[in-house]
Amino acid sequence: MRDEDVAVYLENNPKFFEKYADMLSGVVIPHPYGGRTISLSERQLLTLREKNKALEKQLRDLMENARGNDELQEKVHQFTLVLLGVHDDETLPEIVTRDLCERFAVPHAALHLWEQEPPSAEVLTFADHTLQPVCVHRPMYDTLSWFGEAGEHLRSFAYLPLRSGESSIGLLILASEDAQRFYPEMGTLFLQRVAEIVSRALEPLQ
To answer: With 20 labelled, which of 34, 80, 137, 182 sits at a CA distance of 20 to 30 A?
Structure first.
């Protein structure tokens, strides 16, 4: 008889454990972390403890993620307030990149508005047709030059198209020497919020 057959039988016949309770109390099995043997009840207790530890870790991870999200929400809120307080339109793009770098500890940020710096055809097509931020490990198209001499050291990028209605008005790029700062699988919810806030703030300049 296969192990699987025994497991299926016991699962389908729970009264077996009531009928042979005395036998079960005498069953001994190897300790999972040592050479000695332990009773079945001790093994069950160890299993429950392991499950509890796993659940506690999941709870800690969830709480840590919640705290991290709260902190990000507050930073995005403060960033919004800074942009609302700017009354000199000419300095607004500079304030956007500076505050992003300082508030979110982003090493590099580059912002191009099409009205002031017309993009290449490839960049314009990308920005027009990309509705969500894109995170990559390599620079896209001809944008690496936007970072000057620092460009050759950058290993991760977040591309945030800035939009007004159906068309793009510019492109904001965040970059880092750390390859894990921005990566393709990361969530982009907060990046999208930043893109929307910056787009609305800069829209009057177009």
So the answer is: 34
pLDDT in tens, 134-158: 999 999 999 999 999 999 999 999 9
3-class state of residue 32 by DSSP: coil
* φ, ψ for residue 78, nearest 5 deg: -65, -35
* 147 CB-near residues (< 8 Å, 6+ apart): 108, 110, 154, 173, 175
Output the DSSP codes for 119-146: PPHHHHHHHHH--S-EEESS--TTGGGG
How many whole angstroms separate alpha carbon 68 and alpha carbon 142? 34
CB 153 within 8 A of CB 108: no
pTM, two decimals, is 0.71
- Look up the CATH number of domain 88-205: 3.30.450.40
Determine contact, residues 110/142, Cβ cutoff 8 Å: no
Q: pLDDT for 155-174, tens place per residue?
A: 999 999 999 988 999 999 99
Select from 200, 188, 206 the least CA-distant residue to 86: 200
